[in-house]
Specification:
Order of helices and strands of chain B: HHHHEEHHHHEEEHEHHE
Helix content of chain A: 10-25%
Number of helices of chain A: 4
Structural class of chain A: alpha+beta
Radius of gyration of chain B: 19 Å
Radius of gyration of chain A: 17 Å
Distance between the termini of chain B: 30 Å
Oligomer: heterotrimer
Structural class of chain B: mainly alpha
Largest sheet of chain B: 3 strands, mixed
Number of strands of chain B: 7
Helix content of chain B: 40-55%
Chains: A alpha+beta (156), B mainly alpha (285), C mainly beta (104)
Distance between the termini of chain A: 28 Å
Shape of chain B: globular
Largest interface: A-C, 50 and 43 residues
Strand content of chain A: 35-45%
Shape of chain A: globular
Number of helices of chain B: 11
Strand content of chain B: 5-15%
Strand order of the largest sheet of chain B: 6-5-7
């Protein structure tokens, strides 16, 4: 597959999208300032994606992050992922899939009252690690687990 | 090789009652359940309604994660809205389905004695539309699957209660469905039973074959595979959409949805899960 | 038009467990239309925001690899039964939706 032909979202479209959302009262100006990190989501390498998100890619492995993901995905298009971070002061959790054309999948930013917990469903184009990066106290921590994506037979 | 010999001899044994003695659906049902409960002796009978997840622990966990907030809820809501939207003549589907709210799909498909044919939920939906001056819906996907999902959701908890009626005509439909289930077809020369009866629990490539017992309890289903193929992400499909897919997978030409052939199969197939508690709609890979 | 967001928010031992399902195609922009052979344009949710009593409890930035009909669950403290939780999303085409749910 030709990955350098990825379609880019036109900046003008993105700006008008935010304009609509703001005028509709959907998002607060604070959120607008923290606009969608385009460069991080379009990075094709993990380090670029992490530093595009957090400003640094220096992370330490942590045993305080519990990543629940299937060993073998039933369907790579819908892989349930649950992340629990027991690191005090967890501010953000990013999910990355190094095997995807663009690894950054999602970043969840916790408000003051939110627990270090998030659960979602992700697409995986092939067998890959799932990498979780947690930001806490200005530092980055990570944990990973491999998820196998198989080509099925007939299915469900 | 040994497996094929087993299948072949089992099929020969089966061919005998098909050809000779009178049909005995009640005995069939008993034998069918007994086969699965002894093949999977640690699976409680009612758990077969969970399909392959009743016998595949690894994938069950993922399925349970989906069931935690299943994507079909979106389409059950759509079905409910459609169900309550009046036709141009002011009536709603409730005029055809007075029991929809308290659950009705456990009695489907049923044999209509006056017409001498098997009526499925989806057929009844379209007949209701036509009776009220509306165009019939396309079978297999979209609105009809959403309506069916809603009706099936409302019937959760009811025990399958398909009535085989026992007239020569209804028996002919039953026998036709049974024959479809056990007959080999397609370039791969495989029957429904080859996969979902004789080889239930065995692997076909990366998949574990689901037992046919309990198959019908959770339809219609939202398949992630179907969702991916749809532009909007709508993964809902009816039982007969799945029949078509199964037939194609053994490289046989599928029958039309709601054809007599598939209605007969649905009649037999659903009867074989009589007494199992309905839990549709379901979510599948 | 039915709301695209379904939210359940339940209090469990002082913590509110939020589970949400959003009806959205989450198109990656990498797939081709089988009939026309043309690429299906990317169409995906970029931001999800959740507020409780006007305070943000969670914001999420999403890329194209969040599954179709996205699911999201998180937990937060400090809410009581009957409080209102607001969730909204904006996608790359500027489409948006929001919903309010009572915490049970």
């Amino acid at each position: 597959m030709n990955t350098n032909r990825r379609s880019f979202i036109k900046r003008s479209a993105a700006v008008s999208a935010l304009g609509v959302a703001v005028s509709a009262g959907l998002i607060t100006p604070r959120t607008v300032l923290a606009a969608w990190p385009k460069a991080a989501f379009e990075a094709t390498d993990v380090n670029g994606a992490v530093s595009g998100t957090f400003g640094s890619d220096a992370m330490a492995d942590s045993g305080d992050i519990t990543l629940k993901a299937p060993e073998i995905a039933e369907n790579g298009a819908v892989v349930p992922i649950t992340v629990t971070s027991d690191i005090a002061g967890t501010e953000a959790i990013s999910i990355l899939i190094p095997g995807n054309p663009t690894p950054l999948t999602a970043t969840f930013k916790m408000g003051g009252n939110a627990a270090g917990f998030v659960s979602t469903r992700v697409k995986m184009s092939k067998t890959s690690d799932v990498l979780v990066v947690v930001k806490a106290g200005g530092k980055l921590y990570s944990s990973k687990q491999e998820v196998k994506v198989t080509i099925g037979g007939c299915g469900g | 090789m040994k497996k094929f010999a087993v299948i072949a001899s089992a099929l020969c044994m089966l061919a005998a009652p098909l050809a000779g003695t009178a049909a005995n659906p009640e005995q069939d049902l008993k034998d069918f359940k007994k086969y699965y409960t002894s093949r999977f002796s640690d699976v409680p009978l009612q758990d077969f309604t969970n399909g392959v997840y009743s016998i595949d622990k690894a994938s069950r966990e993922q399925w349970e994660a989906f069931e935690d907030f299943p994507p079909y809820e979106i389409y059950v809501d759509k079905g409910e809205a459609l169900f309550n939207t009046p036709f141009k003549n002011g009536k709603t589907y409730a005029s055809c389905f007075p029991d929809a709210e308290k659950g009705m799909t456990h009695k489907y498909p049923y044999f209509d004695k006056s017409r001498n044919e098997v009526i499925t939920v989806e057929l009844a939906i379209n007949e209701c539309r036509e009776k009220n001056g509306e165009k019939p819906l396309k079978y297999k996907t979209g609105d009809i699957a959403h309506l069916s999902a809603y009706l099936s959701y409302k019937s959760r908890g009811k025990k399958g209660a398909v009535d085989i009626v026992n007239t020569p005509e209804s028996m002919a439909w039953y026998e036709r469905g049974k024959k479809h289930f056990y007959a080999k077809r397609g370039q791969l020369n495989m029957s429904c039973a080859d996969c979902h009866y004789y080889n239930a629990g065995n692997k076909i490539r990366a998949d574990i074959l689901s037992p046919a017992l309990g198959h019908t309890s959770h339809f219609p289903v939202y398949r992630n595979k179907w969702s991916l193929a749809s532009k909007s992400g709508d993964g809902m499909g009816t039982l007969q959409r799945r029949y078509g897919g199964c037939n194609k997978q053994v490289r046989a030409k599928p029958f039309k949805a709601q054809s007599a052939e598939y209605r007969a199969l649905e009649y037999f197939h659903t009867y074989m899960s009589n007494g199992l508690v309905l839990n549709g709609p379901g979510v599948r890979k | 038009m039915a709301k695209s967001i379904k939210v359940r928010a339940k209090l469990k031992g002082g913590e509110t467990v939020v589970k949400a399902l959003i009806s959205h195609a989450m198109e990656t922009g990498q797939r081709k239309d089988k009939k026309t052979g043309k690429k299906i344009p990317a169409h995906f949710i970029q931001e999800v925001t959740c507020t409780h009593n006007g305070t943000e409890v969670l914001t999420a930035d999403w890329g194209t690899a969040i599954s179709k009909n996205p699911y999201l669950s998180f937990k937060f403290s400090g809410a009581k039964a009957g409080d209102v939780l607001k969730m909204s999303w904006v996608d790359n085409k500027g489409e948006s939706d929001s919903v309010e749910a009572k915490i049970k």
